């Protein structure tokens, strides 16, 4: 599978997110402790928001631990909202267009997991994508297809409902193909203002997902921790696995849930697939 993180808060150097934590995403690319595989070396990607209308994006098929360009970029770019992803491919080619995050306009999207039976369902799912958007699909992954289904079903207006409908379509299509548990994983999307993260699997046994707790509480609890005091009180992260072992810093996102983060506010709601209108 893969590992990812989503950060929002005061601007931070990418280096501080990707390299400096005790169990950083770079460490996880070699030694993941909660993923399906310990090594996630089939490429990586980083998306960040700055002064432009659309987010910046850097993706590579190099292992994250071995990319000198990423190391240099991370030491010079700071951002208030960052998506980062390390990939462990399970079928689709190792190529730049298959690396996460995926971008459309102001939106970023990344996924850890898979669609079981995607090869058999690919044509049916592709035909459900808005024809005006279909030409923008660049890669061959199930994750990007899920992104374009969510865009088709209204991601830009109501992300939780759009993702519910995309997942609902996949499950209904899988049912017609005789596939029992098609969806597995965690995913995140953002428009640069709000981050939505989802944990769901058809089987009810999703990949790991955690969100950070209130930073102001942690600052009070750990007054000598310099790294915490460099963060703004509204700083929040959602991660595939914790970046360290600081007691009380992380809470597990419950199964079949969506967490929405805007500023320092978090909202946790149940997640349930919906069948898109007009599909029986």
Automatic annotation (TrEMBL):
<dbReference type="InterPro" id="IPR026869">
    <property type="entry name" value="EgtC-like"/>
</dbReference>
<keyword id="KW-0315">Glutamine amidotransferase</keyword>
<dbReference type="InterPro" id="IPR017932">
    <property type="entry name" value="GATase_2_dom"/>
</dbReference>
<dbReference type="InterPro" id="IPR052373">
    <property type="entry name" value="Gamma-glu_amide_hydrolase"/>
</dbReference>
<dbReference type="Pfam" id="PF13230">
    <property type="entry name" value="GATase_4"/>
</dbReference>
<dbReference type="GO" id="GO:0016740">
    <property type="term" value="F:transferase activity"/>
</dbReference>
<feature type="domain" description="Glutamine amidotransferase type-2">
    <location>
        <begin position="2"/>
        <end position="280"/>
    </location>
</feature>
<protein>
    <submittedName>
        <fullName>Class II glutamine amidotransferase</fullName>
    </submittedName>
</protein>
<dbReference type="InterPro" id="IPR029055">
    <property type="entry name" value="Ntn_hydrolases_N"/>
</dbReference>
<keyword id="KW-0808">Transferase</keyword>
């Amino acid at each position: 599978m893969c590992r990812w993180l989503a950060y929002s808060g005061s601007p931070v150097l990418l280096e501080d997110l990707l390299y400096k934590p005790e169990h950083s995403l770079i460490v996880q690319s070699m030694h993941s402790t909660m993923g399906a595989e310990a090594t996630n070396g089939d490429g990586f990607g980083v998306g960040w928001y700055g002064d432009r209308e659309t987010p910046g994006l850097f993706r590579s098929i190099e292992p994250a631990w071995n990319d000198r360009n990423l190391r240099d970029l991370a030491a010079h770019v700071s951002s208030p909202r960052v998506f980062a992803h390390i990939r462990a491919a399970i079928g689709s080619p190792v190529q730049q267009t298959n690396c996460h995050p995926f971008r459309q306009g102001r939106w970023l999207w990344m996924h850890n997991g898979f669609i079981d039976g995607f090869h058999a369902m690919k044509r049916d799912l592709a035909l459900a994508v808005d024809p005006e958007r279909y030409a923008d699909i660049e890669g061959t992954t199930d994750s990007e297809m899920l992104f374009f289904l969510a865009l088709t079903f209204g991601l830009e207006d109501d992300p939780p409902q759009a993702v519910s409908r995309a997942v609902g379509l996949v499950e209904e299509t899988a049912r017609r193909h005789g596939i029992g548990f098609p969806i597995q994983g965690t995913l995140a999307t953002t428009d640069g203002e709000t981050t939505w993260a989802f944990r769901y699997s058809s089987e009810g046994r999703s990949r790991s997902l955690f969100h950070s707790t209130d930073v102001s509480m942690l600052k009070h609890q750990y007054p000598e921790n310099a790294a915490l005091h460099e963060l703004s009180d509204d700083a929040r992260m959602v991660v595939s696995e914790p970046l360290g072992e600081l007691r009380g810093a992380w809470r597990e996102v419950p199964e079949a849930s969506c967490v929405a983060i805007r500023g320092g506010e978090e909202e946790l709601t149940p997640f349930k697939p919906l069948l898109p209108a007009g599909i029986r």
